[in-house]
Amino acid sequence: MAVTSGDDQAPEEGLTGVELTRRRSAELFAVFGGDDSSPAQRESARESLVHLHLPLVEHCARRFRNRGEPLEDLVQVGTIGLLKSIDRFDSDRGVEFSTYATPTIIGEIKRYFRDKGWAIRVPRRLQELRMQIGAASAELTQSLGRSPTPRELAEAIGCTVEEIVEGIESSNAYSTLSLDASDNDEDGAATMLDAIGQDDEGLEHVEIRESIKPLLDRLAPREKKILLLRFFKNMTQSQIAEEIGVSQMHVSRLLNRTLEQLRTSLEEQS
């Protein structure tokens, strides 16, 4: 059973893009879960499924923009949720894959924010306690008609007053004031960044740039092009994949391998 990419098949007349995606997804899942499919065919189908549903991941990731994390990082985290969904999906249940995958993708992104999105590293128990305090505080405020005291929160959650205080204080580690923030929303208003000095990044990194030039010259043309597109033209991995004609996952592997190679070479020079 052969697997071909979605780009190799001409669109069927009368079908919308969504319908074509669903049909192609069903075909790929038939190969991925087929008893007569070889391991190579299953892996190819899995990779094609990832590429086919990357727009869904990007759509989910956009919901979490402007929360302090780069969109591309959120897409990469969401892709982990997509892979988990592909591996667990049972097409016999009659559920659309996008419906099944969306909660898993969003859950993976939320978990990333919970574990990584803190300005200062906070233990998991305090992160969870903070969430409990928020939920209990909302319920008690509604029932009491006022903000609850730490003791009332402690009784509602089942912990000590000291733990409540510690949980409330840990909330300060989740949200920090941006240096770009200003006292008003007017264009050109002074920000906190204007009040402090800045290092010249060009001078700071000149030694690194000079050290890495000969290493870049030794890279294969494809790896050098990927670095150029990613870090000098600010293209996403999906855009690079389309540019050089490979999958986004393959671009990610090549990029990680190349960066690791450069990092090792720099360490050997130092």
Features:
270 residues; mainly alpha; 12 helices; disordered N terminus; transcription; RNA polymerase sigma factor SigF; sigma factor; DNA-binding
Give a description of the structure.
With 270 residues, the protein is mainly alpha-helical. The chain contains twelve helices and no strands. The chain has helices at residues 17-32, 39-62, 71-88, 97-116, 124-144, 150-157, 161-170, 201-204, 206-217, 221-232, 237-244, 248-269. Helix 11 packs across helix 12 (248-269). The model is unreliable at 1-11 (pLDDT under 50).
Distance between the termini: 52 Å
Proportion of helical residues: 55-70%
Radius of gyration: 25 Å
Number of alpha- plus pi-helical segments = 12
Number of strands: 0
Pfam families: Sigma70_r2, Sigma70_r3, Sigma70_r4
Keywords: DNA-binding, Sigma factor, Sporulation, Transcription, Transcription regulation
InterPro entries: Cro/C1-type_HTH (IPR001387), RNA_pol_sigma-70_dom (IPR014284), RNA_pol_sigma-B/F/G (IPR014322), RNA_pol_sigma70 (IPR000943), RNA_pol_sigma70_r2 (IPR007627), RNA_pol_sigma70_r3 (IPR007624), RNA_pol_sigma70_r4 (IPR007630), RNA_pol_sigma_r2 (IPR013325)
Organism: Nocardioides mangrovi
Question: What is shown here, in short?
Answer:
With 270 residues, the protein is mainly α.
Topology:
Elements: H1 17-32, H2 39-62, H3 71-88, H4 97-116, H5 124-144, H6 150-157, H7 161-170, H8 201-204, H9 206-217, H10 221-232, H11 237-244, H12 248-269
Helix pairs in contact: 1-2, 2-3, 2-4, 3-4, 5-6, 5-7, 6-7, 11-12
